[in-house]
Amino acid sequence: MAIVTGAARRIGATTARGLHARGLDVVIHYRGSADEAEALRDELLALRRGSVALVQADLAEHSAPERIRDAALEAFGRIDVLVNNASAFYPTPFGSATQDDWDELMASNLRAPFFLAQACSGELAAREGAIVNMVDIHGLVPLSNHPVYSQAKAGLIAQTRSLARELAPEVRVNGVAPGAILWPESEQSPEAGREILERVPLQRQGHPEDIAGAVAFLALDAPYVTGQILAVDGGRLLNM
């Protein structure tokens, strides 16, 4: 059974589909995308009855981790995999960033994964389970005009490695660092996209399924892997 945060749309939804296809029951967490979450639930329930539950929570709220854990246990009575996928992302140019920006970006990208891991750690340990954190290549090489987001993802990389040590040997903790997979929903010029892809050795954009496959590998198929960050970026880190 897997919890996937931010699972109603985009990479999170594809990750939930991938884990469901591997036979896991799935808890789909969402904040505001109720229609998309319900549509995904119905899609997956049509494939396997009783295999999906929804939980709504704002990860900025301190009660969210326990609420998500409790919803999973109520629905399925166990937790085997936790995927911390939910993420706020927007520019915060230095000089104009606010403390509210800091709080919002740190809440979803860094604080919530830690406290959700803490809330679920007992169940995960009992099942010899796994945590997979969705980090970012910009946690390794900062993104211009996104200093707060980049710091949050760098912190999540450190958190991944720290919890791999803290939760061993019962729970494995790894991270996936996407590269150019989906462009941000904020406006981006075609020229900017082309410039990015010119620096990708594989010379193409990746797909959400590439990330979902990496998550499934680390969660289910890598019993001797922990504390690792797997970049799924077409080699872009080589040219950053």
TrEMBL record:
Enzyme superclass (EC): oxidoreductase
Domain of life: Bacteria
Gene Ontology MF term list: pteridine reductase activity
Entry EC no(s): 1.5.1.33
KW Oxidoreductase (keyword) present: yes
One Pfam match: adh_short_C2
Keywords: Oxidoreductase
Family to which the UniProt record says this protein belongs: Belongs to the short-chain dehydrogenases/reductases (SDR) family.
Protein name in the entry: Pteridine reductase
